[in-house]
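Hi! If you just cloned this repository, the fastest way to understand the data is to look at a raw example. We've pasted two of them here, unedited. The first protein comes first, obviously.
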Amino acid sequence: MEGVQSSKVAGCIRVGKWGKQSGGPQNEWSFALEKDHKLVKITIDHGELIYSLMFTTKCGGVLHNSNKFGGWNGGDTVSEVHFEGDEEITEVGGAIGNRGGNLVISLLSFKTNKRTYGPFGCATENVFSLPWHKGSLVGFYGLAGYYIDAIGVYLKAFENIIQVGTWGKTEPGSPQNVWSFQLEKNHHLKKITIDHGDLIYSLMFTTQCGSLTQTTETFGGWNGGDTVSEIIFERDEEITGICGTSALSRGSVAGLPIISSISFTTNKKTHGPFGNVRGTPFPVSWDVGSFVGFYGLAGYYIDNIGVYLKACK
């Protein structure tokens, strides 16, 4: 459970990080649950930002504390989050701030299958959230010095694939509103077709395997947008993150929670944003080799979106 230079954990999916994107080896931190260990406590030193984090696990009645990550400076308040025996974290949220021209984590909250803890720290407009399904949290990683500069999570799928998200509409939809796209074995994502305007109206995906191409149905688009854009991916190009915003629809069908904008980041470039960047942002990234597909709800528009991820080999 010590801080290590390499933040990759075998068999796990690394999602994030949010905040500062690069630092020296001395600033890298990583906490991963060991076999048969249960996370029982998180200690957060905070004030106008997150100063430090420390994790306590339990195995066979014995408590184990990680290093304290960050905290070269101290905060105003030290809070402890205690988890019950059958309690599991199912979502991490927070905000990114700025201290002396450097990005830092200014706020954190932890949602479990029982309640929400926090927020701790101070809110900004630069927020992030990461819910997941069909998998579990197995650790955190990031950068730290005087403060917690960046944070990401380690997730492990219950089977082969974990669902990360969704962002946008939070209420469950009817079966006819559910959409899902997964890459088949040996298929490469060749193209995404986006119908957009003040929001994202529809998405369509084209894959290629050898000389064979396959195109999905159009997801969403019961109403049409102003512009249809196509992203053409190179053969060795892969999606490593998305950044979007969620808001309420406007115009003739107003007041519906929707995806108002989206961009796709690959190992080569960023495509977008498409739509209108307004509302609540949802930036999320992952390692090359993890992407499997997208899913969500759609009707007149793309109501929400999530990502299928798998562990890198």
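Ok, and the second one:
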Amino acid sequence: MQQKEQKWQLDESSRKLEKIKEEIQQLSKPLGPSTSDAEFVLENYEKTLHRLQDLNERLQSIKPLSSFLDMYNNLLEKYSETIQQVQDKLAKAKQSFSMRDQYHTLVKEINETVYTCYENLNNVNEETLPSDMKLKKYQTILDDITQCEATYTKASDKGEQIAKEGTASDCNKIMEELQRLRSKLNELRKAVNNEKTQHEHLIAEQKKYMQELDNILGGLRNGMSIMQSQPLLKLPSKDVQKEISKHKEQASELRKMSE
């Protein structure tokens, strides 16, 4: 009776182990890109590991008869191997879950930063500030974009790793999402650079006009100095016309400089 019962226990342990192996095989499929995909696999591996450990403890509590010793030891070895296999898969599933969670967090952060940068850009455009002040604000936005691009690099690395774990369709979805993010960042940087360049040109034009004005005013001041330095006329009548002509020429030159 004891022999029959123990044979049944060992057969039942073997049957349950094979069933668990089938479940493990079902879980070992390509993993989707969403966090919930990884969470589902993670939870199932945790449940499977607990069941295996429980069955293994029950198996170890059996005191095998000599006729079943080889069968018993072989079964123990299979349980040990399967437990190790599930532990490895569980560790990988945890990494996959963490990677997906980080990836989607980074994607969300990038989208929020792009939105905020566009808001800041519109605000700067609408503000009535000197061009040099606007340039500083545009540069601040560009600095934020540079940091966001670094975040994109991290997201891209994680996205590529996630894509390798999924199907071809999953891979395409990840790559398309990353491409959209890259395009958003490129368009944002271009928009800010365009505004920044316009104000840089405006400042350059202002400096040019100010320099020209300084040159004109300098010429006028120089002309006035010459005019004021002229002595009072104490000339013979024959030289008066000559001095009048000279003054007319100087006046004409001043008018040309001021035009």
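That's it. A detail worth noticing about the second one: The chain has six helices and no strands.
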